[in-house]
């Protein structure tokens, strides 16, 4: 039943990594809520501040409101236990426990390629995005992107114009389309594709949501294509998540004098495949298959530290191989423990830190 999943997913500071730990320990969300807070604290699976919230009846009241709102707005709620949960996404390191979907869910059953890039594309980048996306659609490949301005929007629009299926992964609630000028595009997407978010309805598009949603963009795809990206572009985070997830990464070569091609040049230098056409990508996906990475036995490659936001970099600098309690970390950073939760979760998702017991953190390197 999605009610328990939604309730568990709404515990502040928990997140997909810690929920995964709870499920490995207790089996189902229903079993988690049957346990006493003292027992969960004693087991040390999640921080005490998170465990204490599990006894709050507001969790289920709010979950009921979410389900009712979803029904009224035509949003489907699926969980990791659902048979129609996207199979590729289920296998990543931190799969979203709950997905909110609006549109045609059959789009997840076919092959898909993520097309991402800069929000300020050049004429060259726009032309490449249209051409390659059109060719991918000709091969019956769905297009995954993030509904952002620039390359994302061009990929969605080109897919729709060529009668393809496209999926937009949001960094906010499905009812809060961002950017707002893409509301019309979002409506077109759901006619033959879908909007997807791991964030509860009503969630605002906060900046720290978008690195998290990028792992879903790559997780839904067989490959990620980057078309123009600056040196610290968010699309590079998507590409590095793809590498962690065992996906193919393609990049469009660009002019060496273009700032928008600095990121793609670096990807190519690191081993990404150059992409000249959608036909080449489609052919590559037919003959090259990568087994999904087993994250229980294989550590994930780490992201370049330059891609961290300032707050994440500040926190990461304080963490070492010596376990550090969250209260000590908060004191070093001059912040409250509550202020650290979101950034610590993002660092966990990026494979840079891990919680080893209670509220202690270490680097994964």
Helices and strands, with pairings:
Layout lengths: L1 H8 L5 H12 L2 H6 L2 H7 L4 H4 L6 H15 L3 E4 L7 H4 L7 E6 L8 E6 L5 H16 L3 E4 L5 H11 L4 E4 L13 H10 L1 E4 L11 H11 L3 E5 L6 H11 L3 E4 L10 H8 L3 E2 L3 H10 L22 H9 L5 E2 H8 L3 H13 L3 E5 L2 E4 L2
Walk me through what this model shows.
The protein has helices spanning 2-9, 15-26, 29-34, 37-43, 48-51, 58-72, 87-90, 123-138, 151-161, 183-192, 209-219, 234-244, 262-269, 278-287, 310-318, 326-333, 337-349; strands spanning 76-79, 98-103, 112-117, 142-145, 166-169, 194-197, 223-227, 248-251, 273-274, 324-325, 353-357, 360-363. It contains 17 helices and twelve strands. 47% of the residues are buried. The two termini are 38 Å apart. The protein is globular. Mean pLDDT is 89; it is low at 287-300. The protein has a nine-stranded mixed β-sheet, sandwiched between helices. The protein has a three-stranded antiparallel β-sheet with strand order 10-12-11. Strand 4 (142-145), helix 9 and strand 5 (166-169) form a beta-alpha-beta unit. It has three domains: 2-72, no CATH class; 105-287, Rossmann fold; 308-363, Arc Repressor Mutant, subunit A (Orthogonal Bundle), CATH 1.10.10.10. The protein is of the alpha/beta class.
């Amino acid at each position: 039943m999605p009610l328990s999943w939604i309730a568990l997913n709404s515990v502040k500071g928990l997140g997909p990594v810690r929920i995964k730990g709870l499920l490995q320990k207790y089996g189902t969300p229903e079993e988690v809520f049957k346990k006493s807070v003292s027992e969960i604290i004693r087991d040390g699976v999640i921080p005490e501040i998170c465990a204490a919230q599990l006894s709050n009846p507001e969790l289920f009241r709010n979950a009921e409101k979410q389900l009712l709102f979803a029904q009224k707005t035509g949003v489907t709620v699926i969980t990791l236990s659902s048979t129609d949960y996207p199979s590729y996404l289920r296998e990543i390191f931190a799969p979203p426990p709950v997905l909110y979907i609006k549109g045609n869910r059959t789009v997840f059953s076919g092959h898909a390629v993520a097309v991402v890039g800069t929000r300020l594309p050049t004429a060259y980048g726009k032309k490449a995005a249209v051409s390659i996306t059109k060719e991918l659609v000709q091969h019956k490949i769905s297009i995954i992107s993030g509904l952002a301005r620039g390359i994302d929007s061009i990929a969605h629009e080109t897919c729709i114009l060529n009668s393809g299926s496209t999926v937009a992964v949001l960094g906010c609630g499905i009812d809060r389309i961002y950017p707002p000028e893409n509301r019309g595009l979002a409506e077109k997407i759901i006619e033959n594709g879908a909007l997807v978010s791991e964030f509860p309805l009503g969630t605002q598009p906060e900046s720290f949501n978008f690195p998290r949603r990028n792992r879903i963009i790559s997780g839904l795809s067989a490959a990620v294509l980057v078309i123009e990206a600056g040196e610290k572009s968010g699309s590079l985070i998507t590409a590095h998540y793809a590498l962690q997830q065992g996906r193919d990464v393609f990049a469009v070569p660009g002019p060496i004098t273009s700032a928008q091609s600095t990121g793609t040049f670096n990807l190519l230098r690191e081993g990404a495949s150059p992409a000249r056409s959608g036909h080449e990508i489609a052919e590559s996906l037919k003959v090259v298959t990568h087994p999904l990475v087993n994250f229980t036995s294989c550590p994930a490659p780490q992201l370049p530290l330059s891609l961290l936001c300032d707050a994440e970099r500040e926190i990461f600098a304080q963490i070492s191989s010596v376990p550090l309690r969250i209260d000590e970390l908060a004191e070093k950073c001059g912040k409250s423990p509550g202020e650290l939760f979101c950034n610590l979760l993002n660092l966990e998702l990026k494979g840079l830190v891990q919680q080893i017991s209670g509220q202690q953190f270490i680097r994964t390197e």
